[in-house]
Amino acid sequence: MWRVPLSKIEIEKDEIDSVINTLKSGWLSMGEQVKTFEDEWKKYFDINYAFAVSNGTAALHLSCLAAGFGPGDEVIVPSLTFVATSNAVIYCGAKPVFVDVNTEDDLTLSTLEIEKKITSNTKGIILMHYGGYPCDMDSIITLARKYNLVIIEDGAHCPGAEINNTKLGTIGDFGCFSFFPNKNITTGEGGMIITKNVRYANKIKSLRSHYMTTLTWDRHQGHAKSYDVTGLGYNYRLDELRASIGIKQLQKLEFNNQKRGKIVNRYINLLENEKDFTIPFVQHRGKSAYHLFVINTNNLFNKNKIEDHLKKMRIQTSFHYPPVHLFSYYKKHFPEVTLPITERLSNKLITLPLFPSMTYQEQDYVVKSIKDAMQ
C-alpha cells in the first residue's frame, strides 16, 4: 500500500539463519539464547545486570515493582509517550503524575515542571528519551538525589544513545527497552531491563518467572530436581527464538543508528528553512539514537493538510504521541491534568518515515510531497 512506509523491519539472512538453528536445537523456552542475549546486552551497556522479558511494558512493570511502588505512592511520568509508561505505574497501585515537556523544540521532560509536582508521596520518576534524544539527565539526577527518588529510564526509543559519554538506560536506577517491530532493535515482541543494583536485580529475576527458585533450563542442565515458589510473580520471560534475533540485531545497532542519523541530518538540511513548520531537536544534548523524525506544523490546519497529502501520495505518517492524560480512561481517573505544551503539540506534530534502509530517492519523494502540500 505504501510507497514509503513509516518504518521498515531490518531482518536479514543472519537473523533468519539464527532462528532456524534455534528451532533445530529443540529448546525454545528461556535458555541459552536468552542468556547470550543478556550477556551481550550487559557487555554493550557495561552494566552489571540485564534481564530479557516478553515486551517493553513488562520491563516497565517489573521495574516499578522492584522499585517498590505501590498504593499511596506517586510517580512522575510524561504524557507525551506511549501509554505503557503510565500504565505500569497503575499496575502497581500507584498514581501517575503527569508532567509537561520542556519546549516545542525539546520534547523531553521538564525538570522545572517535575519539581513543581513533587510531594511527600512522590517515590519516583519515569522519564522517556523521546525520539532517541536524551533528557537533561544531569538536572534530573540532581533532583532525584535531592528528594530521594527512584529513576526509571524508559529507553524504548534510545538504545545506543548517550549523554556525557554514558549510554542512556545506565544512568537511572533502571533502564527499560522495547523490541517492538518499529524500534531500533526488534525481536517482534520483547524487552530488556538493565540495572546496577543487585537488590533490584534479584527482585526482577524472581518476579520475571513466578518467583520460582529454579527454572526449566536449570533443571534441564541438571542443576536442580525441583523448585519452590517464594512469592507472587509473573510470566514475563523471553523465548529463545526472539532472543536469537536480538543477538544479531544488537550487533547491527551502532551501524543502523549511524544510518538513521545521516537520514535525519539530511531531512534537516532539506526542510529546516521551510516557513510552515519547525523541526524539534535540531539543537540537542548528547548523542541521539535517531528513533523518530518529527516536524511541528505550527497548527492543526497545516498538520491535516500535510498528513492528507502524504497519504494521497502513499507516504505513511504517524503521530507520537496522543497525550496519555487526554485518553478517555485517564480523563476519567485523572481529570484535573493540564499540560499546555504537550496539549499544543498534539495538534501539530507529524512523524515522518525513518528507517536505516531508507533511500535518498524515498526521502526526496517525502520532502517534495511535503513542500507540494504547503503550496
Percentage of residues in strands: 5-15%
Enter the CATH topology name of the largest domain: Aspartate Aminotransferase, domain 2
- Strand tally is 11
Structural class by secondary-structure content: alpha/beta
CATH architectural category of the largest domain: 3-Layer(aba) Sandwich
* Beginning-to-end CA distance, first to last residue: 25 Å
The helical percent reads 40-55%
How many helical stretches? Answer: 14
Please list the strands of the largest sheet in the order they lie side by side: 1-9-8-5-4-2-3
Order of helices and strands: HHEHEHEHEHEEEEEHHHHEHHHEH
| Morphology call | globular
Task: List the uncertain runs.
Answer: none
User: What is the name of the CATH superfamily of the largest domain?
Assistant: Type I PLP-dependent aspartate aminotransferase-like (Major domain)
CATH class of the largest domain: Alpha Beta
Output the radius of gyration.
21 Å
Report what the structure shows.
The structure is a single chain. This protein has 375 residues and is an alpha/beta fold. Helices cover 40% and strands 13% of the residues. It contains 14 helices and eleven strands. It has helices at residues 13-25, 32-45, 56-67, 84-91, 111-117, 137-147, 198-208, 216-220, 240-251, 253-271, 300-312, 328-333, 340-345, 360-373; strands at 49-53, 74-78, 95-99, 122-128, 150-154, 162-163, 166-167, 174-178, 191-195, 293-296, 349-352. The strands form three sheets. It has a seven-stranded mixed beta sheet, sandwiched between helices. A two-stranded antiparallel ribbon has the order 6-7. Helix 1 runs antiparallel to helix 9 and helix 3 packs across helix 4. It is globular and about 70 Å long. The two termini are 25 Å apart.
